[in-house]
Amino acid sequence: MKKLSIVIPCYNESGSLPNLVQVCREACGVRKDVEFIFVDNGSSDRTQEIFNSLLAKPENAFAKLMYVPVNQGYGYGILQGLSLAEGEVLAWTHADLQTDPKDVIIAFDKFGANLALGKTMVKGERNGRSLFDVFFTASMSVISSFLLGSKLWDVNAQPKMFHRNFMAHLDVAPHDFSLDLYVLFKANQLGMKVQSFPVFFAKREFGEAKGGGSLKVKFKLIKRTFAYIFQLRNDIKQGLR
Length: 241
Ligand SMILES: Nc1nc2c(ncn2[C@@H]2O[C@H](COP(=O)(O)OP(=O)(O)O)[C@@H](O)[C@H]2O)c(=O)[nH]1
Ligand SMILES: [Mg+2]
Known about the structure:
By secondary structure, this protein is an alpha/beta fold. The protein has helices spanning 17-28, 47-55, 74-82, 102-116, 131-148, 179-189, 215-237, and strands at residues 4-10, 34-41, 63-68, 89-92, 120-127, 160-163, 193-200.
């Protein structure tokens, strides 16, 4: 019986994969109640080939692979991975090793009893970032909280963790980077307790940041995030969310 499933969506992360798989294997240790689900989210680099060879090794039987042939967004990849999950508690985190996958297991051991009751969502809260990034996140948090009337803080911190019953609310979840925003909004709306815990956010060692790297990329992401927030506001008004 799996108690915890950890989904890790990977998009063109071939440089990170050997380290990622090793770090996850070490985090899992001998535990049989934890499973990792890596998602090759329609990558165009050597991700599929590298996963196939890594996961064929007997020591990596702690993990499964979900292959998404065509990229349909970050959120879509996570939702595909979650559809394979057997655990009672489900989580996701990132593939780029900026957040240690071990954090998910530490948080599960700390908050597992609350998570099992289905009324708690657990999220990381990033430490170790530049002053600019902290200021940027704080501004985004205040504005999104105001627009959605929902207490949102460090939305894109990883991991996210919740009871599998919460899946019932994910059929209308966005397929892009707004998935993290949506689950926190939904948890608040349902009156769940959103429990934060501190995670160290490292610099990216391999590959390129696609989410919030350069200013140009940040700007595109802000535009998409606000477009989603206004769509969500409309849906709420119409009683659709
Ligand atoms: N951009 C992008 N990232 C994805 C996708 N699917 C999974 N990811 C993963 O999402 C994570 C976050 O992206 P990243 O570029 O590190 O964002 P940042 O840390 O905010 O700069 C990485 O681990 C990616 O591999 C996708 O479709 N698009
Ligand atoms: Mg990252």
